[in-house]
## 1
Amino acid sequence: MAQAPASEADAACIAAFVERLWAEQGLARQTLDSYRRDLDGLARWLDARGSRLLAATRADLFDYLAQRSAQQYAPRSNARLLSALRAFYAQQLRLHAIAVDPTALLASPKLGRSLPKALSESEIEGLLAAPDTEAPTGLRDRAMLELMYATGLRVSELVGLPAAAVNLRQGVLRVSGKGGKERLVPMGEEAQHWLERYLRDARPRLAARRDVLPLFLDVHGEEVSRQRFWLLTKSSAARAGIDPAKVSPHGLRHSFATHLLNHGADLRALQMLLGHASLSTTQIYTLVAREGLKRLHAQHHPRG
C-alpha cells in the first residue's frame, strides 16, 4: 500500500532545510533533490507511526534504517540517507527547533571501496561512432558523447553547459562544477571537430529562438535533460554491440580518467580536470589502472 504524502508541516520543514542548505553550502541541485527525497521518505514513514520529523527519536531512526536494510537497500543508499538526516537534524539543532540530535549515535553503514567501471578504448571508439550524424539529433549526440569522453565532465555539467561556455579559438570549456567552482577544461581536437559541426549544422535547426542559452538542445529547443542523455548513451551502446548495462554517462567519465592514467597522465592534473576537491577522490583511478594491468599480465604473461 502506498504511503500518504508527508504532512504539510514536515513538507514545509524539508523545503526550508533544503533552501538553507543551498544558501549556506551551495550544494549541487541533484544532491539537494536526493536529500529532499530521503527526508520525504522518512517523513511519510513517521507519519504512519503517528510521529513527525521534529519529534523523531534515535529509536525511530534506528528502526527506519533497520527496515531499509531488511528490504535490501544498498549500503551506499543508506549512507546517503544518513548524511541527509545528519545535515537536517544538525540544522534543526542550530535553529533550536529540537533539543537533542537523534542521529548522534547512529553508525554509518560500512561501504566497500567500489572501483569505477571503465570501457575499453575499442568499446569507446564503437560507442562514439554509433549516432547517425546525418540527422541533427544524431550530430548532437555524437558531439555530446565526444565531449563527455574528451573532458570527463559530470553529466550535470555537460547538459547544463551554456553556449557561452565554449571557446573554440582556444579549444577549452569554462565549466561550473560542484559548489559553483569554475574550471577550464581542454576539449581536444576530435571533440572540438564534432562540436564545431554540431554548432554549424545542427544547433541552428534545433534552436527555437536565437537567444537560447543551453549548448545542447532537444527537438523542442530546450536543454537536453540528464535522462535524455542517459537514454542516448544506452541506445548508442546497443547500436555499437556493447551491453547497455555496462554503459552509463558516469562510466564515460570513469573511462576518460582511467584511459588518461593508462597513458601516463599526472594524478594532480587529472584531479584538476575532473574538478575533484580532494586528491584522495582521484586516487581511486590508480586502483582501476592497477587492476587493468593485473588482468593484462594474467592474460598475456606465460606465467600469469
Note: The chain has 13 helices and three strands.
## 2
Amino acid sequence: MKDTYKAVEVSAPGELRVVERQVSEPGAGQVRIRVEACGICHTDAATVMGIYPGLTLPRVPGHEVIGRIEAIGSGVSKWKIGQRVGVGLIAGDDGVCESCRRGDAVNCQNPVVSGVTADGGYAEVMIAEARGLASIPDKLTSAEAAPLLCAGVTTYNALRNAGLRGGDLVAVQGIGGLGHLGVQFARHLGFHTVAIGKGRDKEKLAKDLGAHVYVDTAVDDAAVALQRMGGARAILATAPSGSAMGPLMSGLATRGKLIVVGVPNDEIRLNAFPLVFGGRSVYGSLTGTPIDSEDTLDFSVLEHIRPMIETVPLEQAAEGYARMMEGKARFRMVLVTKDGAAQTAPVN
C-alpha cells in the first residue's frame, strides 16, 4: 500500500487544489477509510469559501462519504476491516453536552463536523470517528449511497418526524438536490404528494418521482393551489429561496407545518395572520444521526428510492463543485475515486 494518497483541499478561500498527503494511522476510537465516493453538497460552500465558523485552512471538504475500513484504532470493536461504511455531516458527538444528554446528538454543541472540524471525503483516504459511522447496504452502490447520507437523511428524517399520517397532503417545494429525494420519500411514506416547481418542464419529472400533483408557480400561486386541495399538513421547503418559502405558510392546513431544510441566503418573511389564526408553525430540520442514516439507506433499498447523480473523478473536484454551485447538476454531483470506479454493481 502506498504511504501517500490524493486529497482535494481548500488551501485558501475559493481555491480547491489536488495535493498528496501522508497516510496516517487512526487514533483511539477511529478508523481509516479508503474512500470510494463522496457527494458534493451545497453546504460544502461554507468550507470552500472559508466562512464556516471556527474553520481553519487548509481543510478537505466533503460529508457524504462512502468507503471501506482499512485500519482500526484502539477501542473500536463493532467495525471490521473491509466493511463498507459511510460518514455524514455530523461525524461524532461529544456525548456530554446538554443536547447529547437529552438525546439530541444531531444538535451536539461540540460535534465532529466532516469537512469542517476534521478533513472530509474529497480524498482517497479519510480518518473517521467510529461513533460517526453508518453501515452501507450491499444493494446500493457507493456513488448512489453517498447523497443519501445528507440530502437523503435530511428529507427522510424531516418527513418521518413531522407527526404525519398516511394519506396526509404533503407538499415538497423545489425539485432539486433535496427536493427530488423529498418527493420520493413523501410518496413512499404514504402521503398525498404535491410537488411545487417553476415551469411545465418539471412536471413529468415530478410525477415520475412519485408526485400525485404538480403545481407550476409560473402560472399558479402555490399557497392558493394547496388551499384548493384542502391545505397541506406539511410543506417541505427545499429550494434555497426565502422569498419563495415565506408565502407558502398560507398554503398550510390548520396546525400545518412548514419544514425548512434548504438554507436560503435571503430572509424568510412570514405573515403572522396565518401563523396565529390556525396554529400553523415553521421550523428547521437538520440531517440525522448515524442510525438515522442507516434507516434512510434501508428504507431507500426497501422502496427503491435513489438519488439522481452525476459522477466525476476525484481529480475533477473543482469542476464538479462549480457545476453544483452553478445549478447545472441533475441533481447531485458525486466524486468517485479509483477504488470507487472499480466497484461492481450492487447486489440485486
Note: The chain is about 25% helix and 25% strand.
## 3
Amino acid sequence: MKPSPKTILVRCPNWVGDLVMATPVFACLRSNFPEARIVACMRRHLRGILEDSPWIDEFIYGDDKSVRGFFTLVRQVRQARPELTLVMTNSSWTFLPLWLAGASPAYGYRHRFPRRYLITGGPEPRRDDNGVRRVPMLDYYLELCRFLNLKLDENPRPVLFAAPELQKAGDEYLARHGVRPEDRVIGLNPGARFGSSKCWPPEHFARLADLLQANLPCKILLLVGPREEEIARRIREASHTELVDTASDPVDLALLKPLIRRCSLLVTNDTGPRHYAVAFNVPVVVIMGPTDPRYTGANLEKTAILRRNIDCSPCHLKVCPQDHRCMTEITPEMVLAEAIRLLECNCPHEAGNVPQTLEPPAPGADRAGRA
C-alpha cells in the first residue's frame, strides 16, 4: 500500500444498518488520508445515507446483479483508478468486479473461496470453539483499519450528516403534517426489509401508539419504507391515535435522517433506522427477536433492547416457521415502560431479556383524556 494513496475505493455494505455502523471506517480513512479522493461503491438506493458527509468525494453504484450492471461497475472502478481498495462486503461475487477492474491492493476479510486467494490481504475472522465469533459490526469493520495500522478515534461511533437544505426539507415535511416545533415527536418503525421474522405485530404497534399518546402526549411519526404500506394500513386501522403516516407521503433514506433526528424517541424493530437513532444520539427502544444482539452490541448508551431468550432464538431466518413468540410475547406495555424510562433518565442501560414482572398500565389508561 502506498503511504499516501491518491484515490481510495470503499466497497460499502449492502444493508442500511451495516452501512451506518461502518461510518467510523470512513471517518478513519479521512483522518488518516486527508488529501485522498474517497470513492464509495454502493447500491444506488443507499446513497442518501452518506450524502452530506465530509468523507465521500464520489459515488459509484454497485449494481452487480445484472450482466450490464456488472460490467458497468467494472468500467467505473477501472476509471476511478484506486490506489487502495477496502472491501467491507464478505462475498466473492461483490469483490469480483473490483478484481476484474484491477483494483489493487485490495483489503478485506479472508474467509471465503475463491476470494481469499484473489484479495491482497486482510484479517482472518475471529474464531472461538463455536466457529466465527459474533462481534459488533462496528468493530468488525474497524478491524480492516487496524489491519492497515491506521490511527483510530478513541471512541468510534456511527455518525450521519444532514445538510441545511435536507434539514429544511425535513422540517417542512413535518410542518406539512401538522407537527409544530414545540411538539414532542416519537417515531415508530414497524417494518424490516430483511423479512417478516423481524417485525413486531402491527396490532402491537397500534396499541403502543395509543399508550404513548395517553402517557406521553406527543406526535406519533409512523416510519414505513417501500412495500410496507400494508403494515401501515393495519396499524392505522387498529389505532385510536392520529398518526403522521409516511406511507402516504414517502420518505427516502436521505429525508429519513432529519426526521429521526427530530424524534425524542424511536421505537423500532432491529433494522436500519435504529442505527440512524444511534448516529443522531436519539434514545431508541429496539424490539429484537430472531437476530443475535452481539452483532449490534456497541454504542448502546441510549438504547434499550427488548428480547426474549427462547430456545429457537436467534435463528436469523427471514420468516418464522413456528409461532413467532420471540416477538409476540413482548407486549406494548413492556415497550411503554422502557420508553418512559429512557425519556425520563436517559441513563446507560441495556434491557436484555424482557422483565417478567412488569406491571401494565391500569385498564383503559390508553384512552385517558380522549373523548
Note: The two ends are 69 Å apart (CA to CA).
## 4
Amino acid sequence: MASSDTRDDELTLRLSDISFGADGINLYRFAAVDGQALPDFEPGAHIDVQTCAEHRRQYSLLWPPATPSSYSVAVQVAQQGRGGSRALHYDSVVGQTYRLSMPRNHFRLEHGAKRYVLFAGGIGITPIVSMYRNLKQAGASVELYYWTANRSRTLFFDELCTDERVHLMHDTAPGQPSLRISDVIRDLPMDTQLYCCGPEPMLQEFDAICASRPQESVHRERFSAPESLPADAFQVRLVRSNRTLTVTAGETLLQACLDAGVDVSYSCEEGVCGACEVKVLAGEVDHRDAVLTPAQRKTHGCMMICCSRGVGSSLVLDI
C-alpha cells in the first residue's frame, strides 16, 4: 500500500499470545515492545493490523484489555478470503512484531439510556461482547442475543452460557425455537438503544425492522460495505492541495488522489474502517460506505474517499 503504510500514528507491537477462541477463531494479543501503556479505547473501537506485506485488516478490539500495555482481537479464518486472516492463523509466531493503527471508533456506545439490547451473529460478537461487558459493569439494563452455527463456533461460550441476560441461539440446535432478530425488536420500547453486528442478511433484517424507530437509537457495524452500484464520472476540487481532479467511472476518489500524488490516509479500501474520512466543504456526496449512519451522512460533513463519490462537479474537499 502507499501512504497508509507510513503514517505517523502507527504502533509497532509484539504478538505476545495466541489462544483458541472457538472453531476457526483464534485470539491474538499484541503487547507494547517497551511495556508502556497503550492508548486507551472504548468498546466498539477497532484497529488495523498489517497481517503480512500484502494485507492490512481491521479487527474489533476486545474490551477490557488484558493489560494496559496490550490489545487483543479475535480473528476468524476466512478460507475463501483474500489472505489476511490466513496469514495470522497459519503464519504468525509469538514474538513477531506487527504494525497496528491507533484505535478508531465509529461504533460507539451511547451511555445513559434506560435499556440496551445487543445483537451479534458469528464473529460479530467481538465489538458486541465488549459493549456488553462495559454496560454490565456499569450496572445498565442490558440483554445480549447471539446467533452462531453451533456451540463449538460460539466465541466466549464459557463466559456467556450461564449469564441469564444472554440468549445463545445455534442454527443447528435440534428442537430449538427459531427466534429471529425481528421477533425480539418488535415489542421493545422505542427508546431502547439497539446495537447489531453480524453477517449482511442479519443486518438487513435489523435495518428493516428498525426503519420506523428513532435512528439515534439504532446502531450497526458491517463487515463490508454494500455492493458497488454503477458509477458516473465526477469532478472534485481539493482546496489545500489547490488541485481539481476528474474521477472516472472506473476509479475511486482515493485512487485518483494517489495517482495525482496527493497524500491521503487510507487502509481497508472497502468503506468499513473510516481511515480515509475527509471533510466535505461543499457539494453533493453519493455515500457508499458502511461507517456513517443515515443521520451522520446528512449532518457530519464528511465522506470516505475509498468508496463514496461526488455528484457532477460540485464536490469540494478539505484535502
Note: The mean pLDDT is 90.
